[in-house]
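Sat 14:20. Reprocessing the chain from the morning session after the first attempt stalled halfway. Input below, unchanged.
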Amino acid sequence: MRGVLVAALVALVASLLGTPSVIRLFRRRGYGQEIREDGPSSHLTKRGTPTMGGTVIILATLAGYFVAHLITMNGFTASGLLVLLVMTGLGMVGFLDDYIKIRKQRSLGLTARTKFAGQAAVALAFGLLAVRFKNANGLLPGSTFVSIVRDTDFSIGLIGFPLLAWIIIAATSNAVNLTDGLDGLAAGTSAMVFGAYVVISFWQFGNLCGRGPAQDGCYFVRDPLDVALVAAAAMGACFGFLWWNASPAKIFMGDTGSLALGGAFASIAIVSRTELLLFVLGGLFVVETLSVIIQVAFFRATRKRVFNMAPIHHHFELAEWPETTVIIRFWIVSGLAVAFGLGLFYAEFLSHGGS
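Finished this time. Tokens:
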């Protein structure tokens, strides 16, 4: 438990104190955000705000993780390092996307095909590595069985697993990317979801199969304590960044942050055997993504729009909700989704005879 607390605190302090220096650096270099011309007119005032702030979140998370290990003298684990691999790898894809936007002074960076290729490379590397590194108890970081709150009986095999990992990682990273459209919305929501995974992973560690006498409802997970440590570090980094990203934002996370956070969620869900539960915990990300899918599909079919604009947070802005009102109400929705997801997780534990 001490390592989890240290990771969260170090990442929080690193993000909180390090972000102002990054803001000054990016301003000097002219790393300012480009704004969609077809977006809400109120966003035009945000043009030029430093972006690529996701670098702070990634570095603070890494600092929290590694410092916690140095202090506790615990060894690194395959699960923890794989999550960080995905987070950092997708952060690099997002960084290239943000950098191209800045260099070419446009709101679009990498082509969709190039971005998807980068996501696929990171996700497939994770998928191939996650079914290696068996520990002394025969457990792997990943599982070929599809999971909800724990593994089900449905196996997709060694070939299907990397493809499933690709789908989950690409879907989640793009969902967070779509949500990152208002000051602090993605950072605040991400902090909540990471907090939920701290609880889930630490609970799994306390009820790990093989740690003591056989118990009902125990979990077959490889490295739950280290996964909790990663989630705690990411949560602390998001909270520290949110201090500067809250409205009116002094810096944006950019695709660097949103893709990295989405990748972290997806990989944590996979190694903690909660793949489908992620879609409940990240309910707001699901709603944002569905709003885009519905808008595009309906417009192509009828040439009419369901929403004023998609993603859905822009719909409410154009309906004349103040930006801060949209953000706070969406945080409430996210908090309810996280609470419901944790409730499902605990209810499933009780259904297996846990207490």
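The first strand starts at residue 145 and ends at 147.
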